[in-house]
Design brief:
Helix content is 31%, strand content 24%. It has 11 helices and 12 strands. It has helices spanning 22-27, 56-67, 75-83, 85-96, 107-110, 112-123, 142-148, 162-169, 214-224, 241-249, 272-280; strands at residues 29-34, 49-53, 129-134, 152-159, 179-183, 199-203, 230-236, 253-255, 258-260, 266-268, 285-297, 304-315. Helix 2 (56-67) packs parallel to helix 10 (241-249) and helix 4 packs parallel to helix 8 (162-169). The longest helix is centred in the first third of the chain and has 12 residues, at 56-67. The two termini are 38 Å apart.
Amino acid sequence: MDQKEQNSDQDEEILQEGIVDQTFEERAQKILYEDDNGLNLQNKPKMPIIYYEFNEEIKKLAQDEIEKDVNVLPEEKYQKYEKEAAKCWDKFYRWHQNNFFKDRHYLEREIPEIQQYKESFQQNADLEYYICEMGCGVGNALFPLKKNYPFFKKVYGFDFSKKAIDVIKSSEHYQQDQFEVCVCDLVLDHLPDFVRPDLATLIFVLSAISPENHKLVAQKIYEWMKPGSVLFFRDYGKYDFAQINLSKKKNRKLKDNFYVKNDGVRVYYFENAEVSHIFTSVGFKELDIKAHYRYIENRKTKVKMYRVWVQGRYMK
């Protein structure tokens, strides 16, 4: 897996698991969505945000490729990766530190509550808002949130990788009066005794958890959050570039839509209806659910990626 360029302008992580099928590529119509014509930190033109048209023809091509992968790893392998999940993520962060995932500066664009909090705070500076990043990794949302939105009195976060939490606490940006983070396993542990947040994020986290535990995690989050608070969810969607390439590699499939990568990290690919059911079945009210079909080209490797992400907002 190649390390992505730190200062490129895409907002999400880039997983390079191979080269996308040429037929699939030719049939994907790219649509320019946004281009601010600015420069990045390397003084190069910023990459535009580009959507592509995902239609039934593309879906069938992707589904055919996924269905060719019929070999499922044995149960003992499944249990091995389940037991070693935290160890694999510790190893991942020990290797990459904070250089793999990009800082998530897109959140205000996707979470209208942030703008609402900002406007309310401008009218009344005595208001207090709190936010929690569940599965915070090394702080790629945590630090930008506090920097860009200082009206959050405190930013909380937790992750089940001790190494990730150590990286956060060693950062020059980490100040105890502004941040509080800890190690917590969403499946096995009680959630932290933080001030209950107004807004919580679950970004590319649920996909790393075995599908049989998805509803359990959603239930724990629902019970932990306070009435009226909002959960922002984003994760990998079915037919994503990375899923197709994992299917081509063979011997990576743990269950339908659930795979293990070569570093032992697992990943699940969701459908919109599936995400809706997971959260609404435990009591959340769905505010919105949608898929993002994004085209990304890595400037360094020239790899072209047709990504699929599922995104939703849920209120307790």
